[in-house]
Amino acid sequence: MSKVLTEEKLNVVNTPVEKVDGKALVRGKPVFTDDFDLPNALTVKILRSPHAHAIIKSIDTSEAMIEGVACILTYKDVPHVIYTRAGQGYPEPSPYDTFILDKKVRYVGDAVAIIAAENENIAERAMKLIKVDYEILPAILDYEHAQDPDAPVIHDEPEISGSYDPKHNIASHYEMEIGNVEEELKKCDYTIDEVYYTPNQSHAMMEPHTAISYFDPNGRLTVITSTQVPFHARRILNRLFGVNCRVIKPRIGGGFGGKQAIHVEPYVVAVTLKTGRPAKCVYTREETMTATNTRHAMRFRVRAGAMKDGTLRAIELWGLSNTGAYGEHALTVFMVAGSKTLPLYNKVKAVKFGGDVVYSNTEPAGAFRGYGAPQGMFALDSALDELARKIGIDPIEFKLKNSIREGETSPIFRIMGEGREGVDQIIRSCKIEECAIEGSKIFNWYEKIKRPRIDMKKKVAHGYGVAFAMQGSSIPAIDMGGATLKMNDDGTFNLLVGATDLGTGSDTILAQIAAEVLHTTVDKITVYSSDTDMTPFDKGAYASSTTYVSGNAVKKAAEKMKKEILKAASELFEKPVEFLDLEEDKVVCDDGRSISFAELQTKLFYTFNQRQLEVTESFVSEVAPPPYLVSFAEVEIDMETGKVKVVDFLNYIDCGVPINPILARGQVEGASAQGIGIALFEDHIMDKNGRLITDDFFTYKIPARGDIGKIEVRFAKSYEPTGPFGAKSVSEIGLDTPGPAIANAIYDALGIRMRRLPIRSEELFFEIRKKYG
Question: Is the pLDDT at 2 greater than 80, yes or no?
Fold first, then answer.
């Protein structure tokens, strides 16, 4: 079956079709949330806490009610409903530990009051006039001390629910074991026991968080917002305010998981409900960096053991994760650090994973591209690289010897899902062997590792590293997407999807899938996405699920539309359906007759068995077929400064059939750039009071194009039978490998193992001095 489908002739899929919004983008035409200009709209600003942990003893807004201020809302003026900001499927696996506004603030940047005024200047003047008396409490700024006996309790509110042990600052806990790791390690010829750290990371998307709320002419509350999860946003706003609203997602200027949460929406809705007027809130860059979400910082202790022949017998990943002030995505991100890494090495006799997710008085962590897998993979792949070098085996050979193959499975698939049990699955597409072998040839791995590493005259070192990764395609048995197709009398189609395009090109991908089934072209498919009143439900843009879940929904809808078209033509031609087929925007009959889509729908509108051809289908994933990636890194190190330069970075990826190869390549390249950022550049620095110092693009360094050297992407020849036209996910996995690949390359160059990201040049410099003098 797989062979036949792989060789199926494709006309639109697996071709570099131009993005449906590409020309509009380069002309500056797409309308982002901030571009909407509503008459009489109030500007909303948020007063934020200057303290990491405090109780609001009193708050006086009387002097701030200057001319032009419509309202100022404190915790006394908004619903006291506990919830989670995490945009996840219901019931959410994240704890309910958040209020719109609360009497207690838990990090520098926590919301204290909502100011709504006629313009920004008035709002900011008013903000300075609000008087707040705080009782300052001891704060936890280092998550490794969150469980100390004398640590202050961050969440002592009686309403909290779903948190594992808030009295000891534990938001979530998880552990599982297959076999007996301790016993297996005793049998191993070689073992490793090391600790690895991954840091917080800012999403650094170009468009800040923005939302607008207003009543439409019929009194319906409408919210326009830059969100990845419009349907989840609607549900959460209904919980908070008891109102059914319409949520519209316009063009988004990037999200990377940062917009998979409800940040701005409650503030503008509270103002509109209070005043009856439109309200608009646009976060500053500082707010986007300090008062939304960050990547979960994690610490993993890795213990692993293998035999002399390179057979891996046991792996243990035991972690500590920092969820910050609130527990959104706490358990799910932590579980993914194991569930999207450990199944890759399914030959082990025993495996153990677990640990705690703790609260601290720092910016809340949340969803971020990779969703825990980059943290887990940095620890796991680095440890396996160390173990391979201990044994004296090439790391490619070692990892490949122990990795999963087609037709195999791992018990971890069933045991570990996201916040709950997973599902059994047999791997039906896995080309990791091709990725490793062919990638090593393209990279010239075996030639490069024979070269000298250090040039003492030039004080320069070169090193070569490799990293393996897997991810997933959706959350199986949970993620659902819908699609509606409508045919028009000019032969075009309207495709309505709840799926959220946040710059990834998903509108284009879904149009390609529909066009392929309907034997038409992408320009004949007009896509409408992410309007909770107008489009079918979709879980949102996360978990690498859009192409797989929403794409399958579109494929089902298009196949159903094809049947409806053939049925209508059958009635017109008075011929059985089996004698008809679709071909280039028309229905053709075996007797030579044909009718165009335009003519057929026109007849159906006006003259013949009158009806609108329209269909809706949904898709729920039963499995989450992993994509696989092998990445190769070449680094150059200045031994006099410790500066690391990525010279060459090759990604060889199995993502099934890429629906649009150019967009797929862009996804992998972009993810690699973010991974290089977390490995070498991006650094969260706080002062002693818990205020983030690196809160803008001047102080928070993300890599520019010149910083990341050559990035190359190659696709393995793969076909996933459960995916739309053989496709799997591609958007996240590219972020999993740069950290370990670069760290492994540095070790290869210098014999110095860096186990903490980001790898700061000054720290590497001092290690070089210690080793080489």
Answer: no
> Which domain, by its residues, includes 52?
33-137+203-290
Q: Which one-letter DSSP state was computed for residue 258?
A: T
The answer to whether 213 and 268 have CB atoms below 8 angstroms apart is: yes
Question: Which residues neighbour 325 within 8 Å (Cβ) at sequence distance 6 or greater?
Answer: 106, 107, 110, 154, 359, 360, 361, 362, 363, 364
Across 533-556, average pLDDT:
95
* Residue owning tokens 């309007």: 531
Please tell me the predicted confidence (pLDDT) of residue 706: 87
Q: Is 432 helix (H, G, I), strand (E, B) or coil?
A: helix
**Model pLDDT, residue 8:** 63
Asked if 465 and 746 count as a contact pair (C-beta separation under 8 A), the reply is yes
In a domain, 601, yes or no: yes
> Per the structure block, which two tokens stand in for 29?
């035409």
Give CA–CA dist 377/355, Å, rounded: 16
C-alpha 597: how far from chain center: 39
Encode pLDDT of 465-518 as tens digits: 999 999 999 999 999 999 999 999 999 999 999 999 988 899 999 999 999 999
Q: At 145, phi and psi to the nearest 5?
A: -110, 10
Q: Summarize pLDDT for 650-665 with one digit per residue, the tens.
A: 999 999 999 999 999 9
696 and 603 in one domain?
Answer: no
Residue pLDDT, tens place only, 586-625: 999 999 999 999 999 999 999 989 999 999 999 999 999 9
Among candidate residues 294, 693, 622, 336, the one with its CA nearest the CA of residue 479:
622
User: 512 and 444 in one domain?
Assistant: no
- The answer to whether the CB of 518 falls within 8 A of the CB of 218 is no
Could you tell me which of 416, 465, 464, 408 has the C-alpha nearest to residue 432? Answer: 408
CA angle 453, 458, 460 (to 5 degrees): 40
| Token representation of residue 129 | 């006039």
Q: Is 654 helix (H, G, I), strand (E, B) or coil?
A: strand
Are 615 and 627 in the same domain? no
User: Looking at the structure, do residues 368 and 448 belong to the same domain, yes or no?
Assistant: yes
